[in-house]
UniProtKB/TrEMBL annotation:
Highest taxon of source: Bacteria
Protein name according to UniProt: Uncharacterized protein
Species of the source: Vibrio orientalis CIP 102891 = ATCC 33934
Length: 80
């Protein structure tokens, strides 16, 4: 699933064209990033993505369409 993330209501941590290859990894530019964990506690507003190196990225709900956000949550919840 490829989505284009626009700037959200608050400063978004993840922006640009992001391709979620699976629930375990996504591509941002030329970088392949492995997902260690996703925190869904605040999913009505934001997803907290924790990478293998324990760095964190916020994906704000208002940074993509409702449909894309729902589909992404379903995909990520299958594995996390």
């Amino acid at each position: 699933m490829t989505v284009t993330v626009k700037s959200g209501f608050l400063a978004s941590a993840l922006s640009g064209e992001v391709t979620f290859l699976s629930a375990q990894e996504y591509q941002l530019g030329h970088s392949l990033i492995t997902i260690k964990q996703v925190i869904f506690a605040l999913s009505p507003v934001v997803l907290l993505v924790i990478h293998d190196d324990n760095s964190r990225t916020l994906l704000w709900r208002d940074s993509l369409s409702e449909k894309q956000y729902r589909e992404l949550i379903v995909m990520l919840k299958r594995e996390h």
